Phosphoenolpyruvate-protein phosphotransferase
Amino acid sequence: MLLKGIAAASGYAIGPAFIMEEHHTEIERRELPAGEVEAEAARLQAAVQQAMAELEQIKEKTAAKLGEHEAEIFATHILVLQDEEFIGQAVQKVRDESVNAEFAMSEVTQMLVDIFSSMDSEYMRERAADFRDVSKRVLTALSGQSGTSLNDFEEAVVLFAHDLTPSDTAQLDRSKVAGFATNIGGRTSHSAIMARSMEIPAVVGTQNGSEAVKTGDIVILDGSSGIILVNPDEDTIKTYQEKQAKYMKRQEAMKLYKDKPSITADGHEVELVSNIGNPQDALGARNNGAEGVGLYRTEFLYMGRDNFPSEEEQFNSYVAVCETLGAEKPVVIRTLDIGGDKELPYLELPKEMNPFLGYRAIRLCLDRKDLFKTQLRAILRASAHGNVKLMYPMISSIVELRAANELLAETKAELDAEGIAYNKEMEVGMMIEVPAAAIIADQLAKEVDFFSIGTNDLVQYTMAADRMNENVSHLTQPFNPAVIRLIKMVIDAAHKEGKWAGMCGEMAGNLKAVPLLLGLGLDEFSMSASSVLSVRVLLSRLNREEMKQLAEEALNLETAEEIQYLIVDRVPAIQELTI
Ligand code: PEP
Ligand code: MG
């Protein structure tokens, strides 16, 4: 059997499949005969014990792998399970109303969540998320399943799921998960982006992969072309093992370019930097030859936990990145970009019809000044320890940019008053992700130090095509003439004001796009660490003047296909570097 999806992270994974089951949350109320009530109460208590044992294990593993601080959340969850008010009430409900344990548990949870969510204190409101989390674990135990982590496998598996949240993906252990496939998602959904930075081969948008494949089937996942072969014959396995070996060999050969400058054959130098989601990624960036960080997605620091990271914690993460890379290397820290496909349950925002068009990123930060200023303080303080630059996401008008800059000025004044050091010359830039911003780039360029083009969002907003929806993936691709024209406008606007223009959307690491972007004058290319070396090799084979000519021709073409064809035809090195 052959499954087709979207190539999300290159490389090959060969091994047994593991299907992540979906847990359905619909809970029925069942009345029990009097004789069964005590047994039901005992079943609930046993599930609570199981959940506690699991949490103890996870707590220990997390402390060993990531540190005591990261493990604290699990200690809190254990305390919640020991809370008589909570579990005691659920058991009592089973007895008083002769109902099933699942129903009693979910009713009591909902009641507590409602009470805590409406409290004034933010700390108490955050406790609501704890009740929800532990309740889910108890419900899983009641269903007879174990809620252990995504990495509890004897051998490396290929994981199949309907979807993986970005925080699920962040927790994957490369030695236990050889690759993964999801039914939904596109190339620029955050799970796909994370897979690339973690170098886990991945295919997304398979539609029904997790239903068509069974746990234990042997699969070949080809993350470079987006196909999955299920129970292939011996010869096919051999062919793919050879491809896998060739792929690894090429990855090794490219390491020769690790410390070389990013320079074209005719001597034009650009900056090749990496996108990261956490301080550990900085090591991957450095090992793959990135010259710095062009996008630090700080929201991942806020995710997978149940409270906001403190100023100190943020400061430590930002400084850790500077230290890993070296103090002179640029580190562009993007302020919180929550919303869209990146949820923060403890923020408890109302569900939206169109989360990508909603209350997200800078819109939320300008509203939640407390959160925003805490982050600005941490970034400013970190700027005293490295070449930190600050970047705002999702700006759509000059009013937003000015409001953000005003809060930054206020924060600087506070630090001055407290005598706290920061780099007074720190560059401040913004992402161009919204067509409105691209159109007024000439005005915005006067008030920032740099632009970084976020094509993942810019493409979806320009084409009105959801980046998460595999059915419109033919539209969410960056070679559309409308997108290319916007990119040109942005680069030209920056240069006219003597500012630099970078790109941190996935397009910057796409080998087919690099010649065009070079021709359009892009100064900085920021991408998943795993793409840096192949882009550097490609650049070394390109001639800047020829690419300017190519870009001019591309701007006159009418379809994305014609533009791609022109590039591939003119630059044969692209084919050679694509395995
Ligand atoms: C983008 O939109 O291109 C971008 C880099 O931001 P994110 O992918 O985090 O939305
Ligand atoms: Mg974006």
Q: What stands out?
A: The chain has a mean pLDDT of 91. Residues 34-143 form a domain with the Enzyme I; Chain A, domain 2 fold (CATH 1.10.274.10). The longest strand covers residues 12-19. Residues 433, 454, 456-457 surround magnesium ion (ligand 2) (CB under 6 Å).
